[in-house]
Amino acid sequence: MNPMPGNPNSLHSPGADSSESVGVVLAGGGSYGAYEVGVMKALFEGAASVCAGVPLEAQLFAGASVGALNAAVMVAHAECGLANAAATLEEIWRRKIAEAPGKCGNGVYRLRGIPPLTNPACALNPLGLLSDALGDGAHFLREGLIGGKRFFNSPGSAMQRILEALNVATLLDLRPLANLVTDIIPLEALARSKKALKVVATNFDSGEIRIFENAEIATVIGHRAILASAAIPIFFPPVQIGDELYVDGGTLQNSPILPAVGMAHTLHVIYMDPDVSSIPVETLQSTLAILDRLLVMEWAFTLNQDIEVVEDYNRSYDFLNARRDLPPSGDPRLNQLFKAADHVVASSGGLKWWELTTIHRYHPTDDLGDLTGLLDFGADRIDALIERGYRDALSHDCVRDGCVLSSQAEPARATL
Amino acid sequence: MKALFAGHSPATRYQPFEPDIIVASGAGALNAGVLAANDKRGLVEAVIALEHIWINHISEATSGCGNGIYRIRGLSSEFFNPGCYWSKPFGVLRDAINDGLRAAVGAASLAVSPSCLLDPLAAFRLDAFIDVEPLLKSVQQFIPLERLRNTRQRLRIATTNARTGEIRIFNENDIAQIGHAPFLASAALPGFFPPCEIEGDPYIDASLLMDTPLRPAFTEAEDLHVIYMDPDIGRIEGTRLRSSVDEFDRVRVVRLAYAINQDIRTARAINRGIKVMEMTGSNEPLTKHDIECFLRTAGRIYRRVREGKPYSKLTIHRYHPSEDLGESLGFLT
Fold first, then answer.
1. pTM of the predicted structure, to 2 decimals
2. Of A64, A80, A72, A74, which is closest to residue A41 (Cα–Cα)?
């Protein structure tokens, strides 16, 4: 989607009262998504340092992967205020998503073929265990036949055949996630919510980003939009919507800033990775650690590229506003640029509706854990992540965290 | 490249094409290095030399011993390949001893650190099974530094600093000082090949962040010829998505296509911003798209003009196959 300030769906389109439009952007990251709950709790209670005691009011929630799930819950439960919605989300994470004491497994997935006999909560339901075991047996038989057929039909080398027959996703049962999403995100509440929702998924057929919004999710697509956005490639199977396959929005935009730019002047972006340089290189002692760092680098690179787009618009805004005060130049190209700027401003009704975009970034200063942590929903860990997010929001520091601040408070020329 | 340099391509109006600069990453870095090292013979000759290197040294030629990029440690196939005894009479034995010693050191470190056995994922290194000495030898043999020092070809090799996560571009002067390390770093496919240390930092392949290093080229040239190996994603068979490796491969292609398209959008926005500047004398009305692009690029254009490095309109030619070139993980075959 074009991050155009004049987006026709804009909350601050020409004529609208746009001074307060605020959006929250929630990144993907599996179980690390609990961190977002803590940050949002602090923001919507007004406890975060950026709030100066006033609870934040947001009109837009955009998310990818687990961020999409969190965003959808916030939008669906926003009727009684965002602080209450954040409290509801926290309760969902602690009671329904985490592997809480007295609960059989987590609320997202079940590892097939490994009966959780040591968990008393599971042992109390022997029929459930039996049903899962039978289901897993049938599932492995079917997948084994498909993999075997592929192995024998492949023209490749033995190693290639083995790799082509392996499918990690067959090890996970995702019915808990499907049930959870249906349970915690009432579609009718999404439809009537005054908050805008943008769920980002990756179209695996076309390779393009697709953004699902409230009305489409509530009336046409249903919960599959959330499941598609959360379908971590390799671990979770792609989700079919219409004739096309979709996977995790984080594949292309883990922190989906661009779909939110033009919809809000101030964006609060929450993600779970530290600055790459703050992860010691001494940890690169295994393939897992290398892949983990690679993922962090890819997400940071994409995020910074998207922020660069926002900064491009902000620079242009500064230029257009300051052009009459800029020092004169004998360069004919600059004079041509000034004339073009006058032409554009005149053709756009003075661009009075256009404002600078401010981005606040909330993220940990050190590594929260490795790749294996993505699927670790242990109750203590989830509690710790929520607490950590809350504390980080209290100590949010724009200089340290690299916010993109509106340059209105600075001399306009400084950012050019 | 052969078609371009020989003047057989409609993109250059069937005229021989001589690039002012070559920007490359991954395997492209090796190609770029060979072209730069052979530029004195003319680019057509240089590309013929490159073709020869790929066919006879990099590929697993029937008469040779393995490929010119990597060797899988511990595989006994070398023992049964007569080409190996011919090309490196003592090398087979030396490799076997080296592999054995590495395995022994690995086993000893596991023995003194049994915690690794409890968390095998945290101890497992796939790149420990890959010997990149063939790549080092290929780079040293086919990209002699003394020739690079005298090349007229401007060169940019994109790598990723794994400590900072940032792209670093090495030019021909950097390479003349540092040596072959940027080529090895650019080819260091993370997870498969070990990182390459440069100035104390580990460097890896830039391809995963910037497979086609298009953006760094925006400021260096106006006419860009971009060569990459993936088809339009819609042309890759969906039915192949049955294994984890297939999905991994598709994620890679999807990310690559997305990155290229983002860069092309940026290039188009710059072109349109410049066009809006050129329209000031005319009475032609501005479209919504004109205004959008100008609002995105005006600040950038202003800054570049002030810095004395104004943008020019960019032309980008893309060369890529119209269908999938091979199976998943085929880039290692």
1. 0.86
2. A74
**How is residue B8 written in tokens?**
């057989």
Could you give the angle at the alpha carbon of A162 between the alpha carbons of A161 and A166, nearest 5°?
Answer: 115
What does each of the 333 residues of chain B score in pLDDT, given as a tens digit?
877 787 787 877 788 888 889 999 888 999 999 999 988 888 888 899 999 999 888 888 656 777 888 888 877 667 777 777 777 777 778 888 888 888 888 777 777 766 666 666 666 777 888 888 889 999 999 999 988 888 888 899 999 998 888 899 999 889 988 999 999 999 888 888 888 999 999 999 887 777 678 877 887 888 888 888 777 777 666 555 667 778 888 888 888 888 888 888 889 999 999 999 998 877 788 898 999 999 999 999 998 888 888 888 899 888 888 777 666 566 666
Phi, psi (deg, nearest 5) at residue A147: -65, -40
The answer to whether A207 contacts B258, with C-beta atoms less than 8 Å apart, is yes
Contacts of A305 in chain B (CB under 8 A): 262
Under 8 Å between Cβ of A230 and A199: no
Q: Which residues of B touch A252 (CB under 8 A)?
A: 254-255, 258
Regarding beta strands B71-72 and B130-131, do their DSSP bridges make them parallel or antiparallel, or are they unpaired? antiparallel
Residue B225 to residues A150, A227, B230, B278, B328: CA-CA distances in angstroms? 39, 40, 15, 25, 26
Q: Which residues between 272 and 291 in chain A have a beta carbon less than 8 angstroms from any beta carbon of chain B?
A: 275-277, 281, 284-291
Greatest Cα-to-Cα distance within chain A, rounded to the nearest angstrom = 85
Tell me if A234 and B208 make a contact (CB, 8 A cut-off). no
> Would you call A129 helix, strand, or coil by DSSP?
helix
Place of tokens 């993505």: A374
Instruction: Count Cβ atoms below 10 Å from residue A384 Cβ, excluding itself.
Output: 15
Contacts of B285 in chain A (CB under 8 A): 347
Q: Tell me: ipTM over 0.85.
A: no
CB contact under 8 A, B165 and A333: no
Residue A416, chain B, CB below 8 Å: the answer is: yes
Residue of A316, A324, A372, A416 to mutate, interface with B, max B Cβ within 10 Å: A316
B195 chain-A contacts, CB cut-off 8 A = 284, 290
A172 to each of A108, A114, A202, A408, how far by Cα in Å? 10, 11, 21, 51
Q: Cα–Cα distance between A240 and B206 in angstroms, integer?
A: 32
